[in-house]
DNA sequence: AATGCGGGGGT
DNA sequence: ACCCCAGCATT
């Protein structure tokens, strides 16, 4: 059945006007004070929405304030050095967001005179701007009645309207978009969309929702049946694969430490790290030989001084941290260099390797 | 349609 | 442990 027909069926006997009014009134009185709600500046809304992808509000706030201070306008961000942008993103995760954002801002400056497009097609073509972010910018910054369906919205609507589709599937997001097109307030789409997300964040939470405080409890089908914690339905993802490494803390005669820039694609792209030896490819006894082949340096390797476990969304690094000093050879490795302790903190490091910084002054 | 892509907080 | 979070790009 087509989504529009399903929506028509689902909202039968549902008081849409009452729902809109209750939601928007609740949002206007109960919304949190957040830095990106100071005004409707599309650039600020854009930055906030990118940072908020898969990331909690409390985590984003300090990053947002710092980022806007460093890069207050599209022009400032477009001109900035990529490493500087990554440094401002350091610790926030999903670093391709930062790289895509800068790429998109450059396009806005060059093709649209620095004005964030209010045209859905133009906006949606920008790097890093997907269906959710597009709708969020259009509704919040430009007051256009476009759906902005994120995890909150799917959870709230699945409960209110008792929708049992698997929200892990792409097709289900489109069903909810069709639903929002039908339900959204044409006079205040911004408060409607933000109200849905705010409700999901403050009241209609995943584990133990505060239904007694909910402004639309009266209309919630899941609550009336006592199945609010059974929804939404979401298929579980498989668990992470463990990858073992030896991570080398290599110092030269001057006490400088060897670090390297990761490739510009893939995991932690263009971030910095200490050299890692994958124990899936290299035997622990052959680390010294392997390192000479890869880096052109001979080492005297010490005893392991630390064990670092780092969990990603799709894999787990288990790193043995091993100190070493250079005994000979010539550094022959792209994007690798010895740096002093001052320089090292100016480079963008993923959290996994920040855990190793503490050994800088042994 | 499925997978890769970070990191932190809640339960 | 597991789940989730104001998701997107790539295949």
Main sheet? 5 strands, mixed
* Helical content class: 40-55%
- What structural category do the secondary elements indicate? alpha+beta
Tell me, rounded to a whole number, the average pLDDT: 96
CATH homologous superfamily label of the largest domain = Hypothetical protein, domain 2
How many helix segments? 16
Please tell me what the overall shape is: elongated
Low-pLDDT runs of 5+ residues are none
Domain HhH-GPD: 51-202
Keywords: 4Fe-4S, DNA damage, DNA repair, Glycosidase, Hydrolase, Iron, Iron-sulfur, Metal-binding
Organism: Halobacillus salinarum
Protein name: Adenine DNA glycosylase
Keywords:
362 residues; alpha+beta; Endonuclease III, domain 1; Nucleoside Triphosphate Pyrophosphohydrolase; 2 domains; five-stranded mixed beta sheet; 16 helices; 43% helix; DNA-binding; Adenine DNA glycosylase; 4Fe-4S
């Amino acid at each position: 059945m087509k989504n529009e027909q399903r929506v028509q069926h689902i909202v039968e006997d549902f008081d849409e006007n009452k729902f809109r009014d209750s939601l928007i009134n609740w949002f206007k009185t109960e919304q949190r004070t957040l830095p990106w709600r100071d005004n409707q500046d599309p650039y600020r809304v854009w930055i906030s929405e990118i940072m908020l992808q898969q990331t909690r509000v409390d985590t984003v706030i300090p990053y947002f304030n710092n980022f806007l201070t460093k890069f207050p306008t599209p022009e400032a961000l477009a001109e900035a050095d990529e490493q500087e942008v990554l440094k401002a993103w350091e610790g926030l995760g999903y670093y391709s967001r930062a790289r895509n954002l800068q790429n998109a801002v450059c396009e806005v400056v060059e093709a649209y005179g620095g004005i964030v497009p209010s045209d859905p097609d133009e906006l949606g073509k920008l790097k890093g701007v997907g269906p959710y972010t597009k709708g969020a910018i259009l509704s919040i910054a430009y007051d256009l009645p476009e759906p902005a369906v994120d995890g909150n919205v799917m959870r709230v609507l699945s409960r209110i309207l008792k929708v049992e589709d698997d929200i892990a599937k792409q097709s289900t997001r489109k069903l909810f978009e069709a639903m929002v097109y039908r339900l959204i307030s044409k006079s205040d789409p911004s408060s409607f969309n933000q109200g849905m997300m705010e409700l999901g964040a403050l009241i209609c939470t995943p584990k133990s929702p505060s239904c007694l405080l909910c402004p639309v409890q009266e209309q919630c089908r899941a609550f009336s049946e006592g199945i609010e914690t059974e929804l939404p339905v979401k298929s579980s993802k498989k668990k992470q694969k463990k990858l073992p490494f030896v991570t080398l803390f290599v110092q030269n005669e001057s006490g400088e430490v060897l670090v390297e820039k990761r490739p510009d694609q893939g995991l932690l792209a263009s971030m910095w790290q200490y050299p890692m030896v994958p124990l899936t490819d290299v035997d622990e006894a052959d680390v010294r030989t392997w390192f000479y082949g890869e880096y052109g340096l001979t080492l005297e390797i010490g005893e392991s001084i630390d064990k670092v476990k780092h969990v990603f969304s799709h894999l787990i690094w288990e790193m043995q941290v091993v100190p070493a000093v250079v005994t000979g050879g010539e550094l022959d490795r792209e994007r690798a260099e010895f740096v002093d302790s001052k320089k090292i903190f100016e480079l963008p490091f993923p959290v996994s390797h920040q855990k190793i910084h503490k050994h800088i002054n042994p």
